[in-house]
TrEMBL record, chain A:
Alphabetical list of SUPFAM superfamilies matching this protein: Nitrite and sulphite reductase 4Fe-4S domain-like (SSF56014), Nitrite/Sulfite reductase N-terminal domain-like (SSF55124)
Keyword Oxidoreductase attached: yes
All residue ranges annotated as the Nitrite/Sulfite reductase ferredoxin-like domain in the record: 52-110, 346-398
Organism for this UniProt entry: Candidatus Filomicrobium marinum
Name this polypeptide is given: Nitrite/sulfite reductase ferredoxin-like half domain:Nitrite and sulfite reductase iron-sulfur/siroheme-binding site:Nitrite
From TrEMBL, chain B:
Organism of origin: Filomicrobium insigne
Annotated Pfam families: DUF2849
Protein name per Swiss-Prot or TrEMBL: DUF2849 domain-containing protein
Domain of life the protein comes from: Bacteria
C-alpha cells in the first residue's frame, strides 16, 4: 500500500490546520456562510437533509486495517456509529458536526487520510478494479497508476475550478470491474503490438441527467506519456467545457457537441504543445511508487482445503457464500473474499463501527492488512489464504456481514436518497430494502442468477440506475414518490444505458413490478442465460407487456398498478 | 396557507424550527406558525437576526398544515426532515 511521504503528510496537516482556523472564524462570525461554504466543501463537508455530511476520500478504494479502524473510531465518537460507503468508493458520515469536523480531519490525517477533493468541480477520487493486484485476468496493477493520478490531480492548480466535477477510473484487467465506460475518463491497461503495456483511453462517459457510454479517444497510449496526455484532455475540457449551464457542463456534453474526432484532434493538438518532459513521470519516480504495490510474497498452496470442503458439505449458508462471494486469486491456495454490506433489512453500503472493526481485525489476522471498497458499496479482503477461509467466514457471521449474494439481485446499489440527501426527489433505501426482502430466499436469488439492480433517488444517478440491468429512478410526481424502471443497462465491457420501460410506479407497486420483470425473465430464459442476455435477445416488449398489459391496453393495466 | 420557518444550527447542523428570537426548537409542532403573508414576513425578519448572529444557516419558510393547532409538514421531504432522521 502507498504510504504518505513527508510532503503528503505535511500538506494534509497544513490543510487540516487551515480548516480548523476557518471553522473557528466561521463560528466566531468573522466569515459569513456564503464565504465559508466553498471552504467547507473543499474539505468534503456538505449540508444535507438532517445534518452536515462529511465525505472522506478512500483513494482507489484501498484501506489498511488501521485506516478502517480509524473510520470506525470516527463513526463512534463523532457520528452515530456508522458510515456509508459510496459508489465513488468513498465513505460518508451523515451526522457530522461542524464544530467537531477539525478534530475528525486530524484523526484522518493520523492515518494518511483526508476529505480533500470529495466535493467541488475538481478531479474526484480515481476508482479502480477492487481486485487490482490479485485478479487472475490482470495485465498490470492499476493501483500504481491510480496513485500517480492521485498525486498529479491533488490540488493541481490548473484543474481545481473545472466547469464541473471530474471522475476517472482505471482497470488493468481483461474484465472491466470499474465501470470505466461510465467515467469522464476511463482507462484500460492494454498490451501494444510489441507486447509493451499502455492505455486505451475512453472519454465522455457518465450517468446523471444525460447518460453516455464513453467513446474511445485513443486505442493505445504509451504508459510513460499518461500524465501529459491527461493534461491535454483536461485543458481542452477546462477551456471549452460549458460554464454557463450546469446541465451541460460535464465533458460528455463537450465530447458530444464536438464529436469524438474533433475532440481527439483538439486533444492531440494541445498534447503536441505540452512540454512532456516536465509533466510525464520520470522512470525512477514511477519505480518508487510502484514499489509500494509490489506483489505480496504469498506462498502458493493447494487449491482445495479439506476444512473448507467439509464445512461446505455441512453448512448450506457457507456453501452459498463461497459459491457467490469467493473468487480465485492469482496465487494458488489464496482467494478474494467479497464482504457484502447487503444483509437483508440493512441499508446498502452502511457499515457500523463494530462491523468496520471486525473487518479490520480479519484483514489484520488473515488478509495481509488490506481492505478494498467497491463501487457496488461492498468491501473486499483481496488476500485470504484458503486455509483461513472458514475463520474469516465465522468472523463475518459474528459481525453480521456474511450474506452470500454477490452480484445477485439482492446485491443492490442504492444512493442515500431522500432519507438523507438534499438533492433527492424520492427515497431509495426503502425501495431497495423492500425488493431485497422479496428476494431474500437465497435459493430464489441464486436461481435468478447474476442481475444488477440499482436504485437512485434522483436524476443525478448516484445509485447508478442507468447502468443497472434493472434500474430504478425516484421521481417526484405531484408531491408523491414515484419510480421509473429502466432495463438493459450494463456497467461492464458491454456498457449500455438502460431504457425506460414505461410510466412510473408509486413506491408500493415497485416490488411487484420487479417480481413481474424477474418472472418474465425466468419464463423466457434459455439454459444458463443471465438476465441481461435474455433481455438483449428478446427485447423490451415481453417485459412491457407483462407490466403494462398488451399494446393498446396499457393504460388500464397501468392504472391497476397505480391503484394497487 | 400556514407557514413556519426552518433552518439548521450552524454548530451542529441539527434541523430546527423557529419559535421566536434565539429560540429554535427540534420539535416541529412547537414552531411558531405564520397564518398569512404579513405574519410570515414578520417571522422571517426576526429569524434573520439569528442568521446574522451566526446561530443558524440554510433558513427557509415551509408550508405546513395545522393539526389540532400544531404545525405538521406537508411534503415527503419535510416529513422525513421533521422526523429528525431517515425513515429506515
Amino acid at each position: 500500500m502507498y504510504r504518505y511521504d513527508e510532503f503528503d503528510a505535511a500538506f494534509v496537516r497544513s490543510r487540516t490546520a487551515q480548516f480548523r482556523d476557518q471553522v473557528a472564524r466561521r463560528l466566531a462570525g468573522e466569515i459569513s456562510e456564503e464565504q465559508f461554504r466553498p471552504l467547507r466543501l473543499h474539505n468534503g463537508l456538505y449540508l444535507q437533509l438532517h445534518a452536515y455530511m462529511l465525505r472522506v476520500a478512500i483513494p482507489y478504494g484501498v484501506l489498511s486495517a488501521r485506516q478502517l479502524e480509524q473510520l470506525a473510531r470516527i463513526a463512534r465518537k463523532h457520528d452515530r456509529g456508522y458510515g456509508h460507503f459510496t459508489t465513488r468508493t468513498n465513505i460518508q458520515f451523515h451526522w457530522a458536526r461542524l464544530e467537531e469536523t477539525p478534530d475528525v480531519l486530524d484523526l484522518l490525517a493520523d492515518v494518511d487520510m483526508h476529505a480533500i477533493q470529495t466535493s467541488g468541480n475538481c478531479i474526484r477520487n480515481t476508482t479502480t478494479d477492487p481486485y487490482a493486484g490479485v485478479a487472475i485476468d490482470e495485465i498490470e496493477d492499476p493501483r500504481v497508476w491510480a496513485e500517480i493520478i492521485r498525486q498529479w490531480s491533488t490540488v493541481h492548480p490548473e484543474f481545481l475550478f473545472l466547469p464541473r466535477k471530474f471522475k476517472i477510473a482505471i482497470t488493468g484487467a481483461a474484465e472491466d470491474r470499474a465501470a470505466i465506460l461510465y467515467h469522464d475518463i476511463g482507462m484500460r491497461i492494454v498490451k501494444g503490438k510489441g507486447g509493451e503495456t499502455g492505455f486505451a483511453i475512453y472519454v465522455g462517459g457518465g450517468q446523471g441527467r444525460t447518460p453516455y457510454v464513453a467513446e474511445e479517444l485513443r486505442s493505445f497510449l504509451p504508459k510513460e506519456q499518461l500524465l501529459s496526455y491527461l493534461e491535454a484532455i483536461m485543458r481542452v475540457y477546462n477551456l471549452h467545457g460549458r460554464r454557463d449551464n450546469l446541465y451541460k457542463s460535464r465533458i460528455k456534453v463537450l465530447v458530444k457537441a464536438l464529436g469524438i474526432e474533433e475532440f481527439r484532434r483538439q486533444v492531440e493538438e494541445e498534447w503536441s504543445k505540452i512540454d512532456h518532459v516536465s509533466i510525464d513521470l520520470p522512470q525512477e519516480e514511477y519505480d518508487r511508487i510502484a514499489a509500494y504495490f509490489a506483489p505480496l510474497p504469498l506462498v502458493p498452496g493447494p487449491i482445495t482445503d479439506a476444512g473448507v470442503e467439509k464445512r461446505r458439505r455441512e453448512d448450506a449458508s457457507f456453501d452459498s457464500w463461497v459459491r457467490n462471494n469467493v473468487l480465485p486469486h492469482r496465487v494458488a491456495g489464496h482467494v478474494i473474499v467479497n464482504i457484502l454490506l447487503k444483509e437483508p433489512g440493512k441499508v446498502p453500503g452502511d457499515a457500523t463501527a463494530d462491523q468496520m472493526e471486525a473487518v479490520a481485525a480479519l484483514a489484520r489476522a488473515y488478509g495481509h492488512d488490506e481492505i478494498r471498497v467497491t463501487y457496488q458499496q461492498n468491501l473486499v479482503l483481496p488476500n485470504v489464504a484458503l486455509v483461513d477461509l472458514v475463520k474469516v467466514y465465522d468472523g463475518l457471521v459474528a459481525a453480521g456481514v456474511a450474506v452470500g449474494n454477490y452480484e445477485l439481485i439482492t446485491d443492490i446499489i442504492s444512493c442515500p436518497g431522500l432519507d438523507y440527501c438534499n438533492l433527492a426527489n424520492a427515497r431509495s433505501i426503502p425501495v431497495a430494502l423492500e425488493i431485497a426482502k422479496r428476494f431474500a430466499d437465497q435459493s430464489v436469488a441464486e436461481d435468478i442468477g447474476r442481475l444488477r439492480l440499482n436504485v437512485s433517488g434522483c436524476i443525478n444517478a448516484c445509485g447508478h440506475h442507468h447502468s443497472g440491468n434493472i434500474g430504478i429512478l425516484g421521481v417526484d410526481k405531484k408531491g408523491t414518490e414515484h419510480y421509473q424502471i429502466t432495463l438493459g443497462g450494463s456497467p461492464g465491457d458491454d456498457a449500455e444505458v438502460g431504457t425506460i420501460l414505461g410510466p412510473s410506479f408509486p413506491a408500493e407497486a415497485v416490488p411487484d413490478a420487479i417480481e413481474t420483470i424477474v418472472a418474465t425473465y425466468r419464463a423466457h430464459r434459455r439454459e444458463g442465460e443471465v438476465f441481461l442476455a435474455t433481455y438483449r435477445r428478446i427485447g423490451q416488449a415481453p417485459f412491457k407487456e407483462a407490466l403494462y398489459g398488451a399494446p393498446n391496453s396499457g393504460a388500464s393495466s397501468r392504472k391497476q398498478l397505480q391503484e394497487a | 396557507m400556514p407557514n413556519i420557518i426552518t433552518a439548521n444550527l450552524l454548530r451542529t447542523g441539527d434541523v430546527v424550527y423557529f419559535a421566536g428570537l434565539n429560540n429554535w426548537v427540534r420539535e416541529i409542532g412547537d414552531a411558531t406558525v405564520a397564518k398569512d403573508k404579513d405574519e410570515l414576513s414578520e417571522l422571517e425578519k426576526t429569524a434573520q437576526r439569528d442568521v446574522e448572529s451566526q446561530r443558524v444557516i440554510s433558513v427557509y419558510a415551509m408550508d405546513v398544515e395545522l393539526v389540532d393547532g400544531r404545525p405538521e409538514p406537508r411534503s415527503v421531504r419535510e416529513r422525513i426532515r421533521a422526523a429528525l432522521g431517515p425513515s429506515v
